[in-house]
Amino acid sequence: MALYRAVLARAPDSIEALSGLGDSLRDMGSAEEAVTLLDAAVARHPGSAALHYSLGRAHQRAKRLGKAIDIYKIVLKLDPHHADALNSLGLFFSARDDLKSGIALFRKALAARPEFPDALVNLGLNLKLMGQYTPALLAFRQAMRLAPDDVRAHWAASQLQLLMGQFEEGWRGYEWRWRTREESSGRPGLYRQPPWDGKPLPDGKLLIWSEQGVGDEVMFTSLLPELSTKVSCLLECDPRLVPLFARSLPGVELVARAHPLPTRLSAPDIRAQSAAGSLGRWLRPDRASFAGRGGAYLKPDQGKRDRCRGGYGNEKLNVGIAWHTTKVELTAPRPIALEALLPILRVPGARFVSLQYGDHREAIAKLAGEAGIEIHQDPEIDQIKSLDDFAAQIAALDLVITIDNSTAHMAGALGVPAWVLLPHPPEWRWLLEGSDCLWWPSLRLFRQKAWKDWSGVVQEAAEALARHVAAGRPRTASP
C-alpha cells in the first residue's frame, strides 16, 4: 500500500496505482475508504474499466450488492470482454439461483481469458448444481492443470469424485480439506507422530483424531471396528461422545478432545496418527470395500432407551423428525422449513417426536396452533449437551425421518431405520443415485429431483409413510 501511495504522490492520476490502492484498502477491511478513493478516481477517469471494477469490488465488500452489480455492468459497457467483471456477475446470478445465466457469464469470462482457474471452478460448481457432473469435473481438472495449487479446484474435484463413486481419486483429493478456509484450523500440526500410511503397526498404537461435526465423527468412526482388528487404536473424540463410544468400541482406547492437547496423545507408544476422515483412503478405496463392512456399531444405554420408549407408548408408530442443521451450504441447502413437512406430519397413525437440536419450541407451537399438528418434545433430552441421551432417544423410535444432519448418522450407527431427505445434488457421502446408503444399511434415501425443490421429495416420503403405517411394519425402513 505504501508503494501505491508513493506512486500517487508523483503521479496522482495513475490508474494502476489508484486501482491498486483501492484494492489494498478493501482487502485490509477498509471498504468505505476504498469506495471514497475510487469514487473520486472514477470521476476523473470515467472511461476506465479497471477503476470501475475496483469500485464495484469495494461496494461488494461493503455488502452493497445492488450497487456492485450496477457498476460491473458499467465495466462491461466499457469493456465487454472484461473477464473479472463477467466472472463476478456470474457469481451474483448463481447466488440468485439463476444457474443458466451464471454459466453463460462464466463461459464468456473463459472466452475472454481461457486460462482463468477461478472462472473454471465457478463454472464447474454451477454445472454440478445443474446435474452436469462430467463437464463439471472436466472444468475442475482444467483449473487444476492451470493452477496446481488451487485449493478450491482440488477440493471441488474431490467432492465431486466421491459423489460419483470415484473413491480412489476422491480420497486423495479429500486431503486438500486442510487447506480450505473452513478446515484451515492447523489441527494436523498438533500431532507429533507421522501420518499413517495404511500399514500395520505391530509395536505401537495408531492415534485417530476426529474432525468436523458430530455426524462426521460418528460416520468415520464406523471404520474403527474393522480397523481395530488390524491395528491397536486410540481415538481422540468429542467429549460428548465418550460414554457412547466407550460402550460401543470396547477394543479402542478413548481420549476426550481438549485444549491444550492431552499428554496421552504424545506418549511414545503412539507410532502414527491419522485424521478420521483420512481412513477412508485405506479402508474404503472402492464400492466393493463397503460390502459387508461397517454399518451399525453404536450401543445405546438400554435404561435410557427404555425410559424414552415408555414415554412414547406403543399404540402408534413412533417417528422421530429433524429438519434443521447449522451446517448450511449455499450450493445445496439442507434445512427444510417445518411447515414444509406437513404432508408427512398429517399421515395418520404416527406419533411424531422432535429430534431437532436447538430451541424450536416457537415453530412447533405455531404448527400446533395453525395446523393442529402435535410434535412431542422430550424435556429430558438435550440433543446437543448429551449425545448419549440423544442416541437412546433415537434407539427408542420405530422410524426416523430427517434431513442430512447428525441425526441421520446417529440413526444409521444405531441400526435404527431412517429415511433421509436429500438435496440435489447431495453431499458426497450419499452418492448420486439409489435409495440405499453405502455407509448405513438401515437408511433409505429420498432424493430431490431438482435443485432446492423439496415438495416432491416430501410428498414421496409422506406416501411411503402412509404405506408403512398401513402395513403395520415397525422397525423397517422399506418404502
Automatic annotation (TrEMBL):
<feature type="repeat" description="TPR">
    <location>
        <begin position="49"/>
        <end position="82"/>
    </location>
</feature>
<protein>
    <submittedName>
        <fullName>Uncharacterized protein</fullName>
    </submittedName>
</protein>
<dbReference type="Pfam" id="PF13181">
    <property type="entry name" value="TPR_8"/>
</dbReference>
<feature type="repeat" description="TPR">
    <location>
        <begin position="83"/>
        <end position="116"/>
    </location>
</feature>
<keyword id="KW-0802">TPR repeat</keyword>
<dbReference type="InterPro" id="IPR019734">
    <property type="entry name" value="TPR_rpt"/>
</dbReference>
<dbReference type="Pfam" id="PF13432">
    <property type="entry name" value="TPR_16"/>
</dbReference>
<feature type="repeat" description="TPR">
    <location>
        <begin position="117"/>
        <end position="150"/>
    </location>
</feature>
<dbReference type="InterPro" id="IPR052943">
    <property type="entry name" value="TMTC_O-mannosyl-trnsfr"/>
</dbReference>
<dbReference type="InterPro" id="IPR011990">
    <property type="entry name" value="TPR-like_helical_dom_sf"/>
</dbReference>
